[in-house]
TrEMBL record:
Pfam families, A to Z: Peptidase_S10
Gene3D superfamilies linked: alpha/beta hydrolase
Protein name (Swiss-Prot/TrEMBL): Carboxypeptidase
Keywords: Carboxypeptidase, Glycoprotein, Hydrolase, Protease, Signal
Single biological process term from Gene Ontology: proteolysis
């Protein structure tokens, strides 16, 4: 298994290593290259002293010209990387050359586009349309794609956007975050936003067909479409202090914990790994470029990529935790039903079955036909594989036409996620893992109700916040933030112990930044 952290300048990948400062209190960018990381060379009056919130380290350059600015460019970059990687390490050669790509969140865009690009390149190689495609002294090689999948992926605004208002107003947890008036306003705003997305894509196809993002006019129109559509989803944030990544949690949200950053950034760990750069959760630079400069989410025709992959025989597994608002499962379900491929009608006719994680419990439900599956994983947020629930699922007795395991054992969704992953890769049905789904069994379909919305649950208690120094912007209260600024926060093993946290003390970070409450 190869973990690729890309596009460039994310996490362990980088362009050049620069000695820099890292501001743990960084919140809102004022410019595209404003990321909280500043090179020593960019301090005209000398580098400020390090303290509890301004750290010294080695980071990428933060140069907007040194990273991908669209998903399409990132896909091409990864294809070239894969050509070099698999061709340069003969010890990694196996009898099975198939590649599978998996992702989370924005991975709904990147996995779909990247896999489709790999498949299209394979077709060109087969048809000898890549002439003299030599890399590292050898001809371009086919990189066969077997399976793709992603958890809570945002993939195509045209088909997923309209489900944000519904998730905030009418969901399976009985939580009404926005009132009926706001819901109706949000729903009414969707058509105009979708038209902006269509305009963006039309202009992009005409004036930027290769998605190099060189056309400033197209970029501006697509960035505006992205921002306008984001405002519809933001009704949830305006109305509540609930986490976008788990509707059961409040802001600041400590979950999933980010303890790996404190571990990976220790000097001895970096030396053992042979890594010359500090680890960061993500790249503010890449996010700024994709969202504010090129409007990449509006550009990507994710559904078309999924349809192309399905028509090419690639297995597609869509996996969604049902408490996530950032990329709601309702939109993922709609995406799966909209896909137009040879198995469209059979997939739509298939019903939901429970996903039997093991003999003790079922972790969700799945609709599957042939190579396409859509899984709703119970009691999980955006990072599906991180959740363990201690409460039994509460449902009516007649939801599905077969019994559901009734017990109070924890539902370990890391295992559910792994079973879905494993079953998809090895051509087994997602529901049980016992039935083959390839070859003459490729017409396999689940049976059951056409909707799983009637499966209801209740929200668990809100977890206690933990202010971790690597995630100040998402896991700390305003009081703790101000204590950091004043230099009187008590930190033990990267965790703030004084002042103590609490969801009742949390404030919206956008208000904090805009009103200057911490200045």
């Amino acid at each position: 298994m190869l973990y690729v952290d890309q596009p460039n300048s994310v996490g362990f990948s980088y362009d050049v290593v620069l000695n820099s400062t890292f501001d743990t209190l960084f919140l809102v960018p004022e410019a595209l290259n404003d990321t909280g990381v500043v090179s020593f060379d960019d301090y005209p009056e000398g580098v400020p002293e390090a303290n509890s919130t301004l750290w010294y380290g080695s980071f990428p350059s933060q140069n907007i010209l040194h990273t991908a600015n669209t998903t399409a460019i990132a896909a091409r970059t990864l294809w070239h990387f894969a050509q070099g990687f698999f061709g340069s390490f003969p010890e990694y050669k196996t009898c099975n050359k198939d590649i599978s790509l998996w992702g989370n969140s924005y991975g709904g865009y990147t996995v779909s586009v990247t896999a489709a690009y790999f498949v299209s390149q394979n077709e060109k190689i087969q048809n000898e349309k890549i002439q003299n495609g030599k890399l590292n002294g050898g001809a371009a090689a086919e990189l066969p794609v077997d399976t793709i999948g992603f958890t809570n992926g945002c993939t195509d605004l045209l088909y997923q956007l309209e489900y944000y208002p519904q998730m905030a107003y009418n969901n399976t947890y009985g939580l009404q975050v926005i009132n009926e008036t706001v819901y109706e306003m949000a729903v009414a705003a969707v058509p105009a936003c979708l038209q902006l997305v269509r305009d963006c894509r039309s202009l992009s196809e005409e004036y930027d067909p290769d998605k190099f993002a060189f056309n400033a006019t197209v970029n501006a129109i697509c960035a505006n479409a992205t921002a306008t559509c984001a405002a519809i989803g933001a009704a949830y944030d305006t109305a509540s202090n609930r986490s976008d990544f788990d509707m059961a949690h409040m802001k600041p949200d400590p979950f999933p914990p980010y303890y790996l950053a404190g571990y990976l950034n220790q000097d001895w760990v970096q030396k053992e790994l042979g890594v010359p750069v500090n680890y960061t959760e993500d790249s503010n630079l890449v996010a700024n470029i994709f969202l504010a400069l090129t409007g990449d989410p509006s550009v990507v025709r994710g559904l078309e990529k999924l349809e192309y992959l399905l028509s090419s025989g690639v297995k597609v597994a869509l996996v969604y935790g049902d408490r996530d608002y950032r990329c709601p499962w309702l939109g993922g379900e709609a995406l799966s039903l909209q896909a137009n491929w040879t198995g469209t009608e059979d997939f739509r006719a298939a019903g939901y079955e429970y996903i039997h994680t093991n003999r003790s419990y079922s972790g969700g439900v799945v609709r599957q036909h042939g190579n396409l599956s859509f899984s709703r994983v119970f009691e999980s947020g955006h990072d599906v594989a991180a959740y363990v629930s201690l409460q039994p699922l509460r449902r009516s007795a007649s939801l599905l036409p077969f019994p559901h395991p009734t017990n109070t054992k924890p539902k370990k969704q890391p295992e559910t996620n792994f079973q879905i992953f494993n079953r998809a890769l090895f051509n087994k049905d997602i529901a049980s893992g016992r039935l083959p789904t390839s070859g003459r069994f490729n017409n396999y379909s689940t049976t059951g109700p056409s909707s799983s919305f009637s499966i209801k649950d209740v929200l668990p208690p809100v977890p206690d916040p933990i202010c971790y120094v690597y995630t100040v912007g998402s896991a700390c209260t305003v009081d703790q933030y101000v204590a950091f600024e004043k230099g009187n926060a008590t930190v033990v093993e990267f965790v703030v112990t004084d002042p103590s946290g609490g969801v009742d003390k949390g404030l919206r970070w956008d208000l904090l930044a805009n009103d200057g409450l911490a200045n």
